[in-house]
Design a protein that fits this description.
Largest sheet of chain A: 2 strands, antiparallel
Strand content of chain B: under 5%
Strand order of the largest sheet of chain A: 1-2
CATH architecture of chain A: Orthogonal Bundle
Strand order of the largest sheet of chain B: 1-2
CATH topology of chain A: ABC transporter involved in vitamin B12 uptake, BtuC
Order of helices and strands of chain A: HHHHHHEHHHHEHHHH
Radius of gyration of chain A: 19 Å
Oligomer: heterodimer
Helix content of chain B: over 70%
Number of domains of chain A: 1
Structural class of chain B: mainly alpha
Helix content of chain A: over 70%
Structural class of chain A: mainly alpha
Distance between the termini of chain A: 48 Å
Largest sheet of chain B: 2 strands, antiparallel
Distance between the termini of chain B: 55 Å
Number of helices of chain B: 11
Shape of chain B: globular
Chain lengths: 312, 292
């Protein structure tokens, strides 16, 4: 076990920069997908705001570094905090909405975030975005990309462990209760408002961290990266893995990012391809890879969204 | 002068939003689902008309008919492939499936009709110079649009009020189970609903195309504007959608004219968020019953 960890820990030193970049992206999207799955798959809130919160995290971290001279180690937590606070503030009016109305309101929020990123030139540098210097890791003797990989790996491990603990705690069970029936949940003395705020808060925290790491890895940010395609990509990850499965999100993020990288030459078919993929998953494999495995592996304890398939 | 110009523009675009919004409302009332790919059906309808009219030189009226018919067929295909399997699934499945469908259609349009950000011009069908009514300058195309939308609305109202099929659709909207029990083929009614709504989207696309330019991305923005209209009027209310569409169009054109032109894009989002937060039932919608 220890040798294995050591081996994995040494791998970044020998990988080519491109593979380090892809590994970084995968780790970042694991964090994002878990955050989305908590709000979508566990708490059952159909929110499209995750891509925009991700963008806010990325912009806050990047702009703190670029325009306010914050070092990265300070900008990352501050950027995450900004995204989390904004995520919760936005969630407050959305708490009384559900289903179609929530989906609509969150799409409107996501689109207006992009609009603000494009039009508030003085703060966000407008349509063309901005470019940052690579994050410095020479203090501990690492190149920027390898250093970022260790940072993302640490963040991803913390996020997975934290999510796993939260989801097994009374809070996680309350999320599932709310998803299955809000009326039943409130009859069980579950405070709907409080737990929904928790769910939005956790997912915004995850999206914020992911955004901060993303800007550290990629170094260049434009508003378009956080549009609707971003959220469809994240939906693909959550659904391919399995709605309401923590490890499903990890598997989904790995599969989607690797396939996106493998098909870099066919970018014009990307929208079409992921649209078809998401549709096929929802129509034919509504509980994703984990749902498929669950039939064959005994004792898998996860509150999957089993009624997702059409009835009658 | 500016005022009357802005009002004319606002009413024209508003009338088109209303037509798209009515398509959404018809779907929502009958099936209980919102079609997030409705904007893409609009976009595809516009491109089909473009291919016919500009590339193959089919006269405008025939291009319109062909575009409407083929969009209706596309609606039928979507019904078989996506809507019918998910009709009794929870709203979340249908929302995500239709979002996926919208990306599929948009990606397909980009591959077929051109690359990212490429705008396709659609020539004006009538003389583009404005005519003057009591000192108010109005473009003939605007008159055609408003008149055609009014005709469409009249047709839809008559369809629901006096034809057998329209009444059947109303019955299914009221209660699918009871309709099934009295012998209505509910699935066929659903298929017809999606077809009708796709055809309406195509009509509005063909009317709008000469006023603006086509791009594969036009659908989603338009969908959000139609949503703003439906939400403002109350989800599921047909007159509400018409009034909402006009209000959204006029708000957009006035905010663009008097405040800043970039506000035009974001007006719909502001309206959606404001209405959902302040009065989620909209202006004409009844408060929804508690679901257990």
């Amino acid at each position: 076990m220890a040798a294995g960890v050591l081996l994995i820990a040494l791998v970044p030193l020998f990988l080519s920069p491109y593979y380090i970049f892809v590994a970084n992206l995968i780790l970042i999207y694991i964090i994002l997908a878990i955050g989305l799955n908590i709000v979508l798959g566990y708490a059952g809130q159909l929110s499209f705001s995750n891509g925009a919160i991700f963008g806010i995290g990325a912009y806050a971290t990047g702009l703190l570094r670029l325009d306010y001279g914050c070092p990265y180690w300070l900008a990352l937590p501050l950027g995450t905090l900004t995204a989390t606070v904004l995520g919760i503030l936005v969630a407050l009016p959305a708490l009384r909405l559900k289903g179609h109305y929530l989906a609509l309101a969150s799409i409107a929020f996501a689109q207006s975030t992009i609009w603000i990123l494009v039009h508030w030139d003085g703060l966000t540098h407008g349509t063309s975005g901005f470019v940052l210097e690579p994050v410095e890791f020479s203090l501990i003797g690492l190149k920027s990309h390898a250093g970022m990989l260790y940072l993302s790996l640490a963040a991803a491990i913390v996020c997975v462990v934290m999510a796993s603990n939260i989801l097994q705690s009374p809070v996680g069970r309350a999320f599932v209760a709310i998803r299955e029936s809000e009326h039943a949940a409130s009859a069980l003395a579950i405070d709907l408002t409080r737990y929904k705020i928790y769910a939005y808060g956790i997912s915004s925290l995850y999206a914020g961290v992911a955004g901060g790491l993303f800007v550290g890895v990629v170094g260049a940010v434009v508003p378009d990266q956080f549009g609707l395609f971003q959220i469809v990509l994240q939906f693909c990850m959550v659904f391919v893995g399995g709605v309401g499965s923590l490890w499903g999100s990890v598997v989904g993020a790995v599969l989607i990012i690797s396939s996106q990288e493998l098909m870099r030459g066919f970018q014009q078919y990307q929208e079409f391809g992921f649209g078809v993929l998401l549709l096929v998953i929802i129509l034919f494999f509504p509980s994703g890879i984990v749902g498929f495995l669950k039939l064959r592996v005994g004792g898998w304890q996860e509150p999957l969204r089993h009624y997702f398939k059409a009835r009658g | 002068m500016l005022f009357s110009y802005l009002l004319a523009t606002g009413v024209t675009t508003g009338a088109l939003y209303a037509l798209v919004a009515v398509g959404l409302v018809i779907c929502y009332r009958t099936t209980g689902h919102i079609n997030f790919a409705h904007g893409e059906l609009f976009m595809v309808g516009g491109y089909i008309a473009f291919s016919m009219h500009v590339l193959m030189h089919v006269p405008y009226v025939y291009a319109l008919i062909l575009a409407v018919v083929s969009s209706g067929l596309l609606g039928l295909i979507c019904d078989r492939a996506v809507f019918r399997p998910l009709i009794s699934a929870p709203p979340m499945a249908m929302v995500i499936a239709t979002v996926a469908l919208s990306f599929l259609l948009r990606g397909a349009a980009r591959v077929i009709w051109g690359g990212l950000g490429e705008y396709v011009p659609f020539p004006p069908i009538v003389d583009p110079s404005p005519i003057s009514f009591w000192g108010i300058a109005i473009f003939p195309q605007q008159l055609i649009v408003v008149a055609s939308v009014a005709v469409c609305m009249l047709f839809i109202t008559l369809f629901f009020r006096s034809t057998r099929v329209g009444k059947t659709m109303k019955a299914v909207a009221e209660s699918p189970r009871a309709s099934y029990l009295v012998g209505i083929k509910v699935e066929k009614v659903y298929a017809l609903t999606w077809m009708l709504s796709a055809a309406l989207a195509a009509v509005s696309a063909v009317l709008m195309a000469p006023l603006t330019q086509l791009t594969p991305d036009i659908g989603f923005g338009l969908l959000l504007k139609a949503f703003a209209a439906t939400i403002l009027g109350g989800l599921g209310s047909m007159p509400g959608a018409v009034v909402g569409g006009l209000v959204v169009g006029i708000c957009e054109s006035f905010s663009a004219g008097y405040i800043s032109s970039s506000l035009q894009e974001v007006m719909a989002f502001i309206i959606i968020m404001a209405v959902l937060i302040v009065r989620p039932t909209g202006l004409f919608g009844a408060p929804s019953a508690r679901e257990v």
